[in-house]
Amino acid sequence: MNKENETKTSSSLLPGAYRALELNSFVLDYKQIFLREVLNVEEPPCDLYILREGLPYRLHEKNIVLNNQTMRDWVEAGITKIFIKAREHKSLIAKQNDNLRTNTRSLSVGEPFEKARRQTALLASHLKFFYEDTSNDELLSLLYQSVRSFAHFLTDHMKIHHMTYSDFARQRHHYIHSQPVLSSLFLIGVLKQARIFSDKDIENLFVTSFFKDVGMSCIPFEKYGQKELDVADKQLLVNHAQNSVSILLNRIPISSNCFKIIENHHTFSTLTRELEHFTPEQPQQLISGIETTLISITDIIAAMISERPYRPATSLFQSLDLIRELISNQHPQEFKLLITYFKNYFTKSKAN
Ligand SMILES: [Fe+2]
């Protein structure tokens, strides 16, 4: 333990009032982040801390190489959240911005799966950065360009989708940051299989799907771990689609149809139906076509087969059963397409 840390740890033994002041200063000076936010940052531009006896203890010194094995060891030891000095947060984001920019520009160079693995991790981290700062145009523009290039890359590398999905799911990003990546990854395969969309269409719909949930940023983060939400919270959740449109309108170059899709992407969700008293037969009145159906349904399947803090993951079979209930009568073609795609995805792809 170095001098600075020795001093701080021993001060935890001081009388209550002094300690309260110290803790107050800690809350103001430090920011908690997920450990994975420093993933791929070879030399973190900020000191990394954990809490010991309620006070910060430096785990890693800034500008010193941090390798992935050390990070794996920390995760093994149960460290998934760390602290950094709040004033240094911007330098960490800047470093990750550079990483995302570099990986995006070099997607076509090197081993495709390694590129995809890095890109998915960076996109999820950047969604978190953006949710914390939705007025940041520079960040939005970087995210938009990176997502668009990734869509193009994925349409050219269909064989790595399943591997990328499995690897990304194992990274265990918080679900509000991972869900858009997972659902968009499924979507691109479904759209390709449909054989009615051009590569440009697929790119646009991937971007639409990725950004559809940015309105989730309007909801306090702690709400996402709660098992039970009251009606007001549920309404807030349902409104996220409209909030996504408000955040993105006139800021990213997607068509009005894409905005319409974002607005209606929860048409089929159980929560929307619960709050607005829909039956499974009614939603088709609201949606604008096959694109909305495919984006909504891949989103539902991606969510159902993933674990949440308040419920376990359901099986693919159960999720497809719900989809049958929701769309098989009104959208038989889309239903057939989705069933075929997902059954193949989790059987044939796995065998490859
Ligand atoms: Fe959503």
Spans where pLDDT lies below 50 across 5 or more residues: 1-13, 275-288
Give the spatial strand order of the biggest sheet: 1-4
Task: Describe the global form.
Answer: globular
Mean pLDDT: 86
* CATH classification class of the largest domain: Mainly Alpha
- Provide the number of structural domains: 2
- Strand % is 5-15%
How many separate helices?
Answer: 16
Describe, in plain words, how this protein is organized in 3D:
- Helix content is 60%, strand content 6%.
- The protein is mainly alpha-helical and 352 residues long.
- It folds into 2 domains: 1-89, no CATH class; 106-351, Hypothetical protein af1432 (Orthogonal Bundle), CATH 1.10.3210.10.
- The protein has a two-stranded antiparallel sheet. Strands 2-3 form a two-stranded antiparallel sheet.
- Fe (ii) ion binds at residues 212-213, 240-241, 265-266.
- Fe (ii) ion (FE2) binds at residues 212-213, 240-241, 265-266.
List keywords for this structure.
two-stranded antiparallel sheet, single chain, binds fe (ii) ion, two-stranded antiparallel ribbon, 4 strands, 16 helices, 352 residues, mainly alpha
Brief overview, please?
The chain is mainly alpha-helical.
